[in-house]
Amino acid sequence: MFVIVLCALVAYANAANRLCYGDVMKLTPHGKASGGVTASNSIVSSDLAALNAHKNCYDASADRNCIQASVIAALASRESNGGKALQNGYGDGGKAWGILQCDIVHSGQPCTSVAWNSCEHIEMMVHNILLANIHTIQRMHPTWPPEHQLQGAVAAYNFGTRNVQTWAGVDVGTTGGDYSNDVMARAQWLHNHGWN
């Protein structure tokens, strides 16, 4: 009995340590522009095996950066279907690298210095891009709740922080006009299926 209680406490502590920038479950995302949350859920569920193959990497980066693993994995699902959509590690016509699609030309990151499907790639993209976006959005929109700042940072992952102007228009100009709403819907599905 003691072991079960201890495991539950450790799991709770890990989940709580990933909420520095908000809780994805407090959002009400619209999902994909075409098909809504149902479409987002369908896509991420088909990516689950690929995402689970690197769950230890998502969890490690979530712990280091205090961001829910479900959000990180949902980004990977949107960017590359968890790696399934890549050709030899490349996506976006050869302009982006890895599960989280490091922009080779514009990101300023040493994208190809790490394996496309490595924990190092995931950590580089979470720490250097997503976390930096969160801090910028916090400065730009200090009155937004943490969850809105997190979703704004996810939108910025697609089209840059300067384009995140209003909460109502957070996805205006993102790929498909639905980027962050789709990612957050996928993250909620993952959260409900064992990812925190």
UniProtKB/TrEMBL annotation:
Hydrolase found in the keyword field: yes
Cited Pfam families: SLT (PF01464)
InterPro entries cross-referenced by the UniProt entry: Glyco_hydro_23, Lysozyme-like_dom_sf, Transglycosylase_SLT_dom_1
Gene3D superfamilies, alphabetized: 1.10.530.10
Signal sequence range: 1-15
Transglycosylase SLT domain segment(s): 58-168
Top-level taxon of the source organism: Eukaryota
GO molecular function: lysozyme activity
Gene Ontology biological process terms in this record: peptidoglycan catabolic process
Keywords: Antimicrobial, Hydrolase, Signal
Keyword Signal: yes
UniProt name for this protein: Lysozyme g
Organism: Biomphalaria pfeifferi (Bloodfluke planorb)
